[in-house]
Design a protein that fits this description.
Elements (H helix, E strand, L loop, with lengths): L3 E7 L4 H12 L4 E6 L9 H8 L2 E4 L6 H14 L4 E6 L3 E2 L3 H14 L4 E10 L8 E5 L2 E5 L8 E4 L8 E3 H7 L11 H11 L3 E12 L4 E6 L3 E6 L2 H17 L4 H21 L3 H16 L6 H11 L4
Parallel strand pairs: 1-2, 1-4, 2-3, 6-11
Antiparallel strand pairs: 4-10, 5-11, 7-8, 9-11, 12-13
Length: 315
Amino acid sequence: MANVVSITVAYQPDPDLLEQQLRALASQVNMIVVVDNGSDNVSDWHSRIAADTGARVLRLAGNVGIAAAQNAGIRFAQEAGASHVLLMDHDSIPEPGMVDALLAAESRFLSKGVNVAALGPVRIDRRTGSLSGFVRQQGAKIGWVTCAAAVDGLVEADFLIASGSLIPVAALDVVGLMNEGYFIDHVDTEWCLRARDKGLAIVGVCAARLSHRLGDSVVRVWVGYWREVPLNSPVRNYYMFRNTVLMMRFAPMPWVWRRTHVFRLLQYVVFSSIAVAPRWKRIGLMAKGVWHGLNGRTGPLAVLIDRTTTDGDAV
């Protein structure tokens, strides 16, 4: 029988939304773990969450990044005897039966002799109501596969967004933990690349649903078709560009994905320089991200600035 431990990484969460998530998880998992990644507003939710939902709260000394926080929760779950971990952002809400649907899909793959690294739900953007597909390489192109085109409600994907992903602990033993040097952005992508390189499957499950919000806000742009583009802070642009370059240099990435990532970064530069303020700050941090990625620099941006200033190098 599966022993599922959910791991929610929280940073300055909305306490009411977090409690809503944990109540939705309570009937679906065996244990709830909340990793507080250095929040300031702990008096608003720590004791209440633990008392009302039975969650175990792990409080970190500061914001160590999403990867390190996830790893702290994973280690706790492993010590607690978990068979699976369910990764969650603090603002995602699982629909009823989500975890059971993910476990059932894993069983179907295992019955065929296919080992699974991670299984993820369809994401519903609660701002727009749009349903996500799953991303997969198709020949020389990267495309979205929707559930309308899924075989038996399952999609073998190239990667999954971390929130809502169910990961067997056995897969973590093969693939390893999250890359803490990335701090935030593309942590899930890089892990999935390693998993696929080990021959494990990444699976999208159409029967599983998760209410989610990607980015700080979203805009619709015309690129031959209407596309919803999530917007983040300029600092997040830095991490996206830096970690994309790091992935292209060091991760086991097919050439089709490398080409796609280069094109995506160029698109984002053009889009940000035209449509998204503060334009020059964003472009400057994107350029810094590329430079740091080419130089193999990892970790949080503030530490990198402090280090390079101390060393006398340009940042």
